[in-house]
Amino acid sequence: MIKAAITGVGGYLPETILNNHDLEQMVETTDEWILSRTGIKERRILKEPNQGVSRLAIGAAQDLINKKGIDPTTIDLVLVATITPDYLVAATAAYVASAIGATQAFGFDLAAACSGFLYGMSVAMSYVNSGRYKKVLLIGADKMSSIVNYKDRTTCIIFGDGAGAVLIEPSSNAFGWEDEYLKSNGASRASLMIKAGGSAYPTSQETLDQGWHNLYQDGKTVFKYAVSEMAAATQKILERNHLTSQEINYLVPHQANKRIIDATAKHIGLGPEKVLMNIERYGNTTAATIPLLLYDYEAQLQAGDKLLFAAFGGGFTWGAAYLTWAY
Prior knowledge:
Layout: E1 4-12, E2 16-19, H1 20-24, H2 31-38, E3 42-45, H3 53-68, E4 77-81, H4 92-99, E5 106-110, H5 116-129, E6 136-143, H6 153-156, E7 161-170, E8 177-184, E9 192-193, H7 205-210, E10 216-217, H8 219-240, E11 250-253, H9 258-267, H10 279-282, H11 289-297, E12 306-313, E13 317-324
Parallel strand pairs: 4-5, 4-6, 11-12
Antiparallel strand pairs: 1-7, 2-3, 6-7, 8-13, 9-10, 12-13
Helix pairs in contact: 3-4, 8-9
């Protein structure tokens, strides 16, 4: 049986930094308030005009290609997890594939909000496990600055822009994708959503006047749900694979809020030295948080390390996964 594994990592972050002191000039908040409630000090913003999320995704893909020295024409599939595509109809992944020279690949987008990359790993790993494809480029990318209202402190303090990419191939050893536990609950979708711009509420003067094209979040509901469900999903993975917290090398959690991450780690008995975090520098980059963790900590990971992934996002979507690092 073929086992799929992550064999390379890339990342891309815009140059512009928006820190908490900058936000103090834009909305009623303080650096101390933001840091104490979210763990965020600064986030990156893509400021260049008329540049969509593809700019970020291409940057992450090219970084991976250059580091790995691979021929992009050998890539079979480009999968982009995002909720901020360049356009609603034309798939961002198809454009990214063309831009990086992956001329033999097909591409499509996957929208599962902050769980997008976790869901994307499941899809990409399944393609490789099937034996039908040998090289899948999975990118998590979001330009959250394009959908955030910078007068709404419940959202603008949280989100940033960025992209991370992984190459998924058949494993050359015994390590790779081990297990996954993915869930969703559409009954709660109104707690974290953009109301307008889709088929339910097409763009109109009324939707523009109401501000329905910006991200809305019921913070208390999302926080409560995220804490309970991320903890439950990670516990399920541990139990199903007969793992103890001592055997886990690192928790690789979606970077939504430091308090959510801390609560998840505490629930399964992991100390802070085993929890990967970069939320302080990037904020919540939605589908990009998990691959950006791998990008930042790649040099620290060793072949055979047991990684536990966890995410929660709009939809609601959530889940956990278990992977052994392959290089």
